[in-house]
Amino acid sequence: MSNDKNHVVIFDTTLRDGEQCPGASMTLEEKLEVADLLDEMGVDVIEAGFPIASNGDFEAVAEIARRTKNAVIAGLARAIPADIARAGEAVRHAKRPRIHTFVSTSPIHLQHQMRKSEAEVIEIITATVAQARNLVDNVEWSAMDATRTPIEYLVRCVDTAIKAGATTINLPDTVGYATPQEYEAMFRQVRERVPGSDKVVFSAHCHDDLGLAVANSLAALAGGARQIECTINGLGERAGNAALEEVVMAIRTRGDVLPYATGIEAGMLTRASKLVSAVTSFPVQYNKAIVGRNAFAHESGIHQDGMLKNNTTYEIMTPESVGVSKTSLVMGKHSGRAAFRDKLKALGYELGENALNDAFARFKDLADRKKVVYDEDIEALVDQEIAAAHD
Ligand code: KIV
Ligand code: ZN
Questions:
Q1: How much distance in Å is there from the Cα of 49 to the middle of ligand 1?
Q2: Residue 144 in contact with ligand 1 by CB distance below 6 A
Q3: pLDDT tens digit string along 291-302?
Q4: CA proximity to 49, closest of 67, 79, 28
Q5: Hey, which of 101, 144, 231 would you mutate to test ligand 1's pocket, going by the most ligand atoms within 8 Å of its Cβ?
Q6: pLDDT at residue 166 above 80?
Q7: What average pLDDT does range 60-79 have in this prediction?
Q8: Which atom of ligand 1 is the closest one to the Cα of 229?
Q9: Which regions span the lipid bilayer (predicted)?
Q10: 39 known ligand binder
C-alpha cells in the first residue's frame, strides 16, 4: 500500500457484504478462488467474512488469512467481546491482519434495534475498540448508519474510537440514503472536528438503494476519505454496494477531476466479474457499467460509423483496459451500411456496390424480423445474393 496522499485503499467486501446478498452464498473453495483473484488484482484489503456468523465463515476467513500473500485480511465483528475474540482468532495467521468492528450510532438504530442510550454506546466503543487493538495493530471501526446520525454525536463517537486505538474510521451509508453533497460534507465536518483525524484513514462504505453508491463513494474522497469499501459487480445487501470496477475505472478514466490512484490491475476486472457471477449464480445485467455484456457493444448506425472511423467517438475507455478483447459492433436493425460492409469484409466477402446495396436492403428486412442477426444469417443472405447474381 503506498503512502501517497492520493492513494485510495480499495477494501473489497464481496466475501462479506456481498455474500450477505440473499442467494449469493459461496462454498469455501469458491471463496478461496475469489480471494486469490482479488489479491492478484491488487486489492488492498479483503474483508474475508464474519467469523462469528458460522463455523464455515470462520474457516473461510482463517484459510484466506493463511494463504493471502499481499492484501490485509479483515474479519468483521459486532461490538461484542465474543465477536471480537473470534475475529481476532480467524485473522491471526494473516501477514497483515485487521479486525473490523462496528456499532450503530443513529437514533433510529439506538432506539429500535439496540435499545441503548448514546452514553452506553460511547462506553461500548471504548471497550470494544480497545479489545480489538489488544489483538491486532490494525483496527477499523464503523459507525453503522452514520449518514442518519446527528453530526454532534457522530463526532463524539469517532473521537472515542480514535482515542481507543482505531486506525481506520468507516462512516457507512448503511441504508443508501445520502446524496453525494451530504456524504462529502459529513466526512469534511467529522475530520475538521475530531482531533487526530489526520492520523487515521477515513473510509466510505455505500449501499445503492438510490443508485448513488459509486457517486457517494467518489464524493467521500473529496471530503478526505482514502478508503472505499466496495464489491465486485456491486453485489451486496438489498440493492448492493458500490461496484469496485466502477470506482476503479471512474478514478482511472477521470483523473482530470478525480486526482486519485488505486493499485488495482484494471485488466483483470472482467475476469473478476465473471468469476463472482459464476460462483454466486448472480447474472451481470447486460448494460452494467464496465463489465456488462453491452458495455463495449454498439448497434446504432451512427455509433458504428463513428467507431469504425475512430474508437474515441463513442468509447471513453478501451475494452482492453478492463480485460475485454475488443469492441463489438452488433448487427441489428439500427446498424448502418458502414458496419455492414465492415462485417462482410470480416466474413471474407468483397461485394460490388450494387450487390452490397441489395444485400444491405435484405439484411435490414431480416433485422426487422429478428432481434439479433448472427454472422451465419448474414453469410446465408450474402450467399443467396451471390447465387442470384450468377443465375
Ligand atoms: O452497511 C454497513 O453499515 C455495514 C457495516 C457492517 C460496515 O456493512
Ligand atoms: Zn454494508
A1: 12
A2: yes
A3: 999 999 999 999
A4: 28
A5: 144
A6: yes
A7: 98
A8: 7
A9: none
A10: no
Question: HSE on the CB side for 188, CA within 13 Å?
Answer: 9
pLDDT(276) > 80: yes
For ligand 1, is residue 236 a contact (CB within 6 Å)? no
Q: How far is the CA of 78 from the centre of ligand 2 (A)?
A: 13
The answer, yes or no, to whether residue 2 has pLDDT greater than 70, is: no
- Dihedral, 305, 309, 311, 313 alpha carbons, nearest 10: -70
pTM, two decimal places: 0.95
pLDDT at 390 over 80: no
C-alpha span between 176 and 44 (Å, rounded): 24
The SS3 of residue 308 is helix
Confidence of residue 385 (pLDDT cuts 50, 70, 90): confident
Q: How many CB atoms lie within 10 A of CB 360?
A: 18
Per-residue model confidence as pLDDT tens digits over 204-249: 999 999 999 999 999 999 999 999 999 999 999 999 999 999 999 9
**DSSP label at residue 165:** T
Q: Is 309 exposed, middle or buried (0-12, 13-18, 19+ CB in 10 A)?
A: exposed
Kindly give the distance from the C-alpha atom of residue 58 to the centroid of ligand 2, in angstroms, as a whole number: 19
| Ligand 2 center–CA 19 separation, angstroms | 11
